[in-house]
């Protein structure tokens, strides 16, 4: 592949396009087949809490998708002087889990429920007991069954239930399919058969027989596909929907749509057994590819898969950096009040770096950035809290350090189950996402939390949109190779990174913080009971 002439590569259509709908940004990335980023487009957005449901409207979803692609198209034209008419393949990714419910005409039956919603406790508990397999509150099957338990009449009209990535993929191709990694956030997967677990499918169908629906589970769930499989082609309608300029041609192949966990694994080359990654952003999750099954069922741990179907243990925290970002916003307001011109990026960098001067245990401070309920700690509503005692060492360094620590706090509890209780072995742990942009800070704190070296690659800032672009490139250019081989030989062979191991006192300090974190959850629960105002 000619890496030298981006304009020529784009004109020839020897590129891969990846679009990922994240929590706060929709990002479009155009790469060549070696993973080199040629152009990027962005569209910023936010979820809304409406009638107790975290959601995005269809109007926002559609406008955001088109806006992100339009931004990319304009960047290509400005940078290379060529029109973006065709790519070798396209991939769509989005936030995992949740509930998109459509009728036979493709109309939305209920508000889109994102991963952030934890209003499915009864359903998740009953299904976990039935399957003897952990069903997290945010999984699609938990949302579906909760709607049934709640007696929602619209369930009778269901024709299709899918995640956000699968919804977008169908808009573009007409195909009702989903990548296996994202499908693993809808329903338990049989990794040997690369499909939904048939025993559990039959159990669920028997469970709902008494409701006399016209459908069974497989009728309304997408077909499961693995990385490298053909997932359809961009239709004329799909091309016109995505590209309002009318330049994009139909007929482009699409790879299976994936969730952000799977694309994060690809973006960090963490799809092989005994590799793992921690993605830290609005939500934070750790993914470890297993060499053998876990010994016990753990409600704190999701059992999902890689994009090729390998079993993977996931410690998923609904709450990551949202509150941390809000505090940075407060500091920016203070700077403006004082007449100081402060760049937001510089504020992040200086405040993060200053946290390194804090105490290893954060000086006795505690914080909970629970914008929403938290699955790992079994707390079903969000309350944000900052706590200290009269003897706590309250200074700026410790304040920043505790807010960085707590963004990894819930994930740490899940990782302790995997590494201490289950004795899961990890050869390589990689960090990526916005939390790791300031070099050597959050990376060091993650290392302290797991007592293991953590690597951040030079490509760490590329994120999940780059990951889904790589899966599209694998479809277009990876014939005869496994995904692991393709990533090792074509994408990451020349990529470097930095590895950090926390000092013993930092490991000990994080353990002290963790014990306080667990004790302080009683305060979080009390806040839910006491703080009932909007």
TrEMBL record:
Family indicated by similarity: Belongs to the FGGY kinase family.
Alphabetized Gene3D superfamilies for the sequence: 3.30.420.40
Name of protein: FGGY-family carbohydrate kinase
All residue ranges annotated as the Carbohydrate kinase FGGY C-terminal domain in the record: 277-474
Biological process per Gene Ontology, one example term: carbohydrate metabolic process
Keywords: Kinase, Transferase
The Carbohydrate kinase FGGY N-terminal domain, residue ranges: 16-241
Cross-referenced Pfam families: FGGY_C (PF02782), FGGY_N (PF00370)
Xref: InterPro entries: ATPase_NBD (IPR043129), FGGY_C (IPR018485), FGGY_Carb_Kinase (IPR050406), FGGY_N (IPR018484)
Keyword check for Mitochondrion: no
Entry's Gene Ontology molecular function annotations: kinase activity
Highest classification ranks of the organism: Bacteria, Bacillati, Bacillota, Clostridia, Lachnospirales
């Amino acid at each position: 592949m000619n890496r030298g002439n981006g304009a020529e590569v784009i004109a020839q259509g020897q590129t891969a396009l990846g679009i990922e709908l994240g929590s706060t940004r929709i990002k479009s990335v155009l790469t060549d087949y070696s993973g080199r980023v040629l152009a990027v487009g962005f569209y910023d957005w936010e979820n809304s809490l409406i009638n107790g449901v975290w959601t995005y409207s269809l109007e926002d979803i559609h406008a955001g998708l088109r806006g992100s692609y339009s931004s990319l198209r304009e960047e290509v034209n400005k940078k290379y002087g060529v029109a973006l008419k065709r790519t070798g393949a396209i991939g769509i990714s989005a936030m995992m889990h949740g509930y998109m419910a459509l009728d036979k005409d493709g109309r939305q039956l209920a508000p889109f429920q994102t991963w952030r919603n934890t209003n499915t406790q009864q359903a998740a508990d009953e299904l976990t007991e039935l399957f003897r397999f952990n069903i997290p509150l945010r999984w699609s099957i938990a949302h579906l069954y909760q709607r049934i338990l709640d007696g929602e009449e619209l369930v009778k009209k269901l024709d299709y239930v899918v995640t956000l990535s699968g919804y977008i993929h169908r808009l573009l191709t007409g195909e009702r399919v989903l990548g296996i990694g994202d499908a693993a956030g809808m329903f338990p997967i049989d990794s040997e058969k690369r499909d939904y677990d048939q025993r559990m499918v039959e159990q669920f169908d028997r469970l709902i027989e008494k409701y006399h629906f016209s459908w069974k589970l497989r009728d309304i769930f997408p077909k499961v596909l693995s990385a490298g499989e053909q997932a359809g082609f961009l239709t004329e309608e799909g091309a016109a929907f995505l590209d309002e300029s009318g330049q994009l041609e139909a007929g482009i192949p699409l790879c299976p749509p994936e969730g952000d966990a799977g694309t994060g694994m690809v973006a960090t080359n963490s799809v092989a057994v005994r590799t793992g990654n921690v993605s830290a952003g609005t939500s934070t999750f750790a993914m470890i590819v297993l060499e053998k099954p876990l010994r016990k069922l753990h409600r704190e741990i999701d059992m999902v898969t890689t994009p090729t179907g390998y079993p993977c243990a996931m410690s998923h925290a609904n709450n990551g950096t949202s509150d941390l970002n809000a505090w940075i916003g407060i500091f920016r307001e203070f700077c403006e009040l004082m007449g100081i011109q402060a760049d937001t990026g510089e504020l992040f960098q200086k405040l993060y770096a200053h946290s390194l001067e804090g105490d290893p245990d954060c000086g006795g401070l505690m914080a909970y950035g629970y914008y929403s309920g938290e699955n790992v700690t079994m707390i079903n509503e969000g309350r944000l809290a900052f706590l200290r005692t009269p003897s706590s060492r309250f200074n700026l360094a410790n304040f920043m350090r505790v807010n960085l620590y707590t963004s990894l706090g819930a994930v740490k509890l899940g990782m302790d189950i995997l590494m201490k209780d289950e004795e899961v072995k990890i050869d390589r742990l990689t960090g990526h996402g916005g939390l790791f942009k300031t070099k050597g800070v959050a990376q060091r704190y993650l290392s302290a939390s797991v007592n293991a070296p953590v690597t951040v690659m030079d490509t760490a800032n590329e994120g999940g949109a780059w990951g889904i672009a790589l899966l599209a490139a694998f479809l277009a250019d990876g014939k005869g190779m496994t995904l692991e081989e393709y990533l090792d030989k074509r994408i990451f062979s020349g990529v470097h990174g930095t590895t950090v191991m926390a000092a013993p006192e930092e490991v000990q300090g994080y353990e002290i913080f963790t014990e306080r974190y667990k004790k302080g959850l009683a305060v979080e629960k009390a806040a839910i009971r006491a703080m009932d105002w909007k």
